[in-house]
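Bench log, entry 3. Co-assembly request; chain sequences pasted below exactly as received.
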Amino acid sequence: AQSVTQPDIHITVSEGASLELRCNYSYGATPYLFWYVQSPGQGLQLLLKYFSGDTLVQGIKGFEAEFKRSQSSFNLRKPSVHWSDAAEYFCAVGPRETGANNLFFGTGTRLTVIP
Amino acid sequence: EAQVTQNPRYLITVTGKKLTVTCSQNMNHEYMSWYRQDPGLGLRQIYYSMNVEVTDKGDVPEGYKVSRKEKRNFPLILESPSPNQTSLYFCASGYYEQYFGPGTRLTVT
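Structure output for the full assembly:
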């Protein structure tokens, strides 16, 4: 069965520091991979996605993620965090045979940014 | 502007009183879906629709109904709400890239 693991429930970083949020998935083949961000009281916004090709993908707001097939991982990174990045981040996978119509989400990582 | 709207945004109701949460999108997407979000569980899909009059169950469909009579609208119906359906609900639109509505916070007492 498909599963998505975000091992860090809560991460605190200082403004200006680098950030890496971890995501591991379990699936029989390489799925479609997504990162979403949810600001307090808001819906989810797509940060970036991986379908195929270059394993380092760039997203909005200065985020990037790297797909590593050997590790079944799709970690999200940002070189310098801003206070406005405080939010909850969700990794999601979508089986290739059904596209993104049945996304499986991780349980999320809450990011706190301190001055 | 590409948009998914949901109404109401907040709803407090009592057990057994039928309710409908509306969802509308302006992107002409064929695919729409409903999720619920609960602490520690992430988002779980309730129902999805591949097109008008085509709907199917997601991972947690019990206690919910949906309909898709027009491409732009995909309402979520709770015929007899129960307290375990207290949750934050999101409608989403799009196939390879999903756009989410702002959410509906439902409390069933």
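Chain A is about 0% helix and 50% strand. Residues 67 and 92 of chain A are 13 Å apart (CA to CA).
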